[in-house]
Amino acid sequence: MACLKQRNMGLSDQIAQYLVSGLSTGAIYALIGIGFAIIYNGTEIINFAQGEMVMLGGMFTLFGLDVLKLPLPVAILMAVTLTTLSGVLFERLTIRPLKSPTPLSLVIITIGGSILIRGIAMLVGGKDTHAIPAFSGSDPLSIGSATILPQHLWIFALTVIAIVLNKLFFQYSITGKAMRACAANRRAAGLVGIDVRRMVLFSFAISAGLGSLAGIIVAPLTMTSYDVGVMLGLKGFCAAIIGGLSGGLGTVLGGLLLGVLESLGAGLISSGYKDAIAFIILLLILFIRPQGLFSRAQTERV
Amino acid sequence: MNREVYKFLVLVAIVLLCPLAVHEGYILNVLVFVGIHTMLALALNLLLGYAGQISLGQAGFFGLGAYISGILTATHGVNPWLAMGEGAVVVTLLAFLIGFPILKLKGHYLAMATLGLGIIIYIVFNEAVDQTGGPSGLSGIPNLSLGGIIFDNDLKNYYLIWTFVLLSMGLALNLVHSRIGRALRAIHDSEVAARVMGVNARLLKVQIFALSAGLSAVAGSLYAHTMTFVAPASFGFNFSVELVTMVIIGGLASIYGSLLGAALLTLLPELLRAFQDYDIIVYGLLLIIMTMYMPGGLVKGVPALFSAIRSRLKRKPSAHA
Amino acid sequence: MKRLLLPIITFALLSIWAGSCLAASTIKIGALFSVTGPPSFLGEPERNSAKMVVDEINAKGGIKGKKLELVVYDTQGDATKAVQAANRLIKEDKVVAIIGPSTTGESMAVLSVAEKEGIPLISCAAGSKITDPVKKWVFKTAQNDGLAVTKIFEHLNKRKINKVAILTVSDGFGASGREQLKAHAAKFGIQIVVDDTYGPKDTDMTSQLTKIRGSQAQAIVCWGTNPGPAVIAKNVKQLGIKLPLYMSHGVSSKKFIDLAGDAAEGIILPSGRVIVADVLPASDKQKKSLVAFVKDYQKHYKAEGDHFGGHAWDAIMLLKGAIERGGDTPAAIRDQLEKTRGFAGIGGIFTYNTADHAGLAKDAFVLVQVRNKDWALVK
């Protein structure tokens, strides 16, 4: 009898845990997705190398901790700086020299870039997976019947901070407004005296930094290796698409939704097809609502 | 047109005589793969180079062809030729249906959607264990045979596969020099203008997408029957990127470029054995550098480079540096 | 286009010429390992170990006065590349035997080449279907997954546990483990109440584990290679699941304990003897090989030698034995390999015969448990 009761309670407890797990994975997707959105909004480029920035964040932190023996906060700071520089370097060396960029050539160059960065990381850092210690312990916290780790709280906090800063930056700072202007109309922005190329560089720098931060903060959960960026990058991109490539709340909601659907799918339907679920959602959204789930229709999106 | 025919006949002659020059069995084996890759690069080039539509999911169609052929023959004992035909028809139809929504998208969105499609297909290969054998693959696929000849060694496979390569190249050459080819180029330059001129751009794009998928599926069948084994790892995202690299390096919108790109990329790892761990870096760099500095691929880039060097040499080597 | 063709052809011819130039007084052995790509955790230690042992043999004067030459190609975990490389090894490098590939999928693809060309192949992959049914030219050194499963199920029987949940990775390693777990369960009176999988790159398995928590399972068996199982160990701890957790030999290296940290404590898994070499009793027949291997690997690569590397070590040593007994033609090597009796290697004690080309019994595995961040033997 007691057993039966426990079983009945089981399902709602399970769903609670699916939701909590989904939200925490979703927050990671959201953070990575915002990076995609920022570059897209600044330049109309989908940066396929964004996932590698996530990877670099984790790998540089590891380098700081294990090789240079730095304390964690310093290692994090160093990793964000180095990744931002990598992003800038990438833009300078490959995107800027293009004489007549077409979407096709940009797709291919950023894919080439991601392969290159991954290859360099593999040769320098080896092929092993490495653990990074959690920021504040790994004793689980209970939320009702579900549990999460302290690291998840860091992820949620960072996601919120990222949206707020992003909003403030793009709404109120001169640079942010200039970047929005570039996105809206490059030529017009250039005519009113905005240095378009500098804005492109800025958006690569910001999103590389943000990507690396996402990579660092998930590393204690996911561990890090030269190839973690591939799947995380693609999931982040799905999140951004669901959110209509908005740099703010849309992408966050997209990420959370994706995370929850994946988690429910894995728990209730089939864990093997979990990743397929993410991409089927991606396709459906691209087919039916290419402007994203949460934004009003725009003309220039397809 | 005569020149085209002449060029093609030279190629046929080279293909026929090649095994006499390379009796080394191993090179012949590589050439078999060059052939399969050429078909795939050609299929992608029709879409990417001529219609200007990117696909990052070609490996999925290739894999579907291979698996349909493999499952039908190894598990259900269907005649390999029939299986190949079924694979081609099924994949072509599938691509035709999915082509309508997917080709509404452009640029990055199209890249991402085709990528997603490729990954979904890849996941199915991995997860449908009962049908596909899952990650450890499907073995026991029979060789093709024709009138008593079983295609079970490199020399026979070479002639088998290159026959298909030449047929598809002939088909592609005819296609691009026809009315359809001109319409495709019009779409590539400006879809709106093409529409205004009365080209049914959408249908044409979908048809090319389906043709490209079908051709890839045939290549997949050939692959399955020559390897007699298939596993999902051969049909992942990486291979899709490798195919795009072949097309870019060979030359967009060039039939012979596809051959060149496929040959180069298949031979490259063989030639660069010394740096085997670095080949991921070589790939990345090749993609970036070729797109940046030789967007026409080797077919256009190399002659251009030579004439540039020549004209520079003729001129006085001054001011221009 | 013509201008380009000439250098390519020259280069190709040069490389062929260079390849066929070295010959005569050496014995060429080919190796196919997935040094890069997803299974690099197998291929890298395998390549390292193979190189190491070949160097050692040569330093001691080779085999019957002939030096060994090892030709290694990277297959990247891709069956197509493995087949191409196998063809090259046989037809261009003219090797007398091949060791590898690293994974079951690649081995299944390559074995038809070896069979057709008549070259002995010693696979380093675990899948039992590689040598079952027996193929004339194909042997293997990695312990069959079925043996590891048997070891776990015996232990479950001892603890009177009969309902288990299995959680396997969706790659070749996990698929083969899953197949064996399901095949052997009934024999041990064990019921699989949850059969779930996870992707090799997944970063959170709480969904699957939540489902398991809500089931009647009395123990969890997880089948995968790093990093997945470490994530699972952490997730189990996060969810407060108290069920005994069993893993596969896929994670039997210090690396796993590093990755999983505290969450690794108490986990039980079947393993080759490598990781417990130092605590084995002196009477253990394998102890000498094991200690030598661990020490050498540490010296050469500044890393812990694992049993994956051991598979390649065993393969080379088996070849060495066969060549010493019967000469260095492919046919002689094959015949002598089949006559190997009681060779104490890293993976176990090998005895091949015409009906068995896997050569190991279930005592090739021992059960180990993580205690105080180290491996301990389970009696």
CATH topology of the largest domain in chain C: Rossmann fold
Distance between the termini of chain B: 41 Å
Helical residue percent of chain C? 40-55%
| Cα Rg of chain C | 21 Å
Q: Give the CATH H-level superfamily of the largest domain in chain C.
A: Response regulator
Query: Mean pLDDT score of chain C, rounded?
Result: 89
> Any idea how many domains of chain C?
2
* Category from helices, strands and their pairing of chain B: mainly alpha
Distance between the termini of chain C: 69 Å
| E-strand count of chain B | 4
Low-confidence stretches of chain B: none
Principal-axes shape call of chain B: globular
Across the major sheet of chain C, the strand order is 2-1-3-4-5
Domain count of chain B: the total is 1
Report on this model:
The complex is a heterotrimer of chains A (302), B (321) and C (379). Chain A contains eleven helices and two strands, in the order ααααββααααααα. With 302 residues, chain A is mainly α. The model of chain A is unreliable at 1-9 and 297-302 (pLDDT under 50). Chain B has one domain. In chain B, the strands form two sheets. A two-stranded antiparallel ribbon of chain B has the order 1-4. In chain B, strands 2-3 form a two-stranded antiparallel sheet. The longest helix of chain B is centred in the middle third of the chain and has 27 residues, at 201-227. Chain B is globular, with a radius of gyration of 20 Å. Chain C is α/β, with parallel strands linked by helices and 379 residues long. Chain C has two domains: 26-143 and 291-361, Response regulator (Rossmann fold), CATH 3.40.50.2300; 145-271, Rossmann fold (3-Layer(aba) Sandwich). Chain C is 44% helix and 17% strand. Chain C has twelve helices and 14 strands. The radius of gyration of chain C is 21 Å and the shape is globular. The interface between B and C is large, with 42 and 43 residues.
Question: Which descriptors would you attach to this protein?
Answer:
heterotrimer; A: about 300 residues; mainly alpha; two-stranded antiparallel ribbon; about 75% helix; disordered N terminus; disordered C terminus; B: about 325 residues
Write the layout of secondary structure elements.
The complex is a heterotrimer of chains A (302), B (321) and C (379).
Chain A: H1 2-43, H2 50-67, H3 72-95, H4 103-125, E1 141-143, E2 146-148, H5 150-172, H6 174-184, H7 186-191, H8 196-222, H9 229-242, H10 249-269, H11 274-288
Antiparallel strand pairs in A: 1-2
Helix pairs in contact in A: 1-5, 1-6, 1-8, 1-9, 1-10, 2-3, 2-4, 2-8, 2-9, 3-8, 5-6, 5-8, 6-8, 9-10, 9-11, 10-11
Chain B: H1 2-21, H2 25-50, H3 58-75, H4 80-102, H5 107-127, H6 129-132, E1 138-139, E2 145-146, E3 149-150, H7 154-176, H8 179-189, H9 191-196, H10 201-227, E4 229-230, H11 237-250, H12 255-271, H13 279-293, H14 297-314
Antiparallel strand pairs in B: 1-4, 2-3
Chain C: H1 2-21, E1 26-33, H2 40-59, E2 67-74, H3 79-91, E3 97-99, H4 104-117, E4 121-123, E5 138-140, H5 145-158, E6 163-169, H6 172-185, E7 191-198, H7 206-213, E8 219-223, H8 228-238, E9 245-246, H9 254-260, E10 268-271, H10 287-301, H11 307-326, H12 330-338, E11 343-344, E12 349-350, E13 366-371, E14 374-377
Parallel strand pairs in C: 1-2, 1-3, 3-4, 4-5, 6-7, 6-8, 8-9
Antiparallel strand pairs in C: 10-13, 11-12, 13-14
Helix pairs in contact in C: 2-11, 3-4, 5-6, 8-9, 11-12
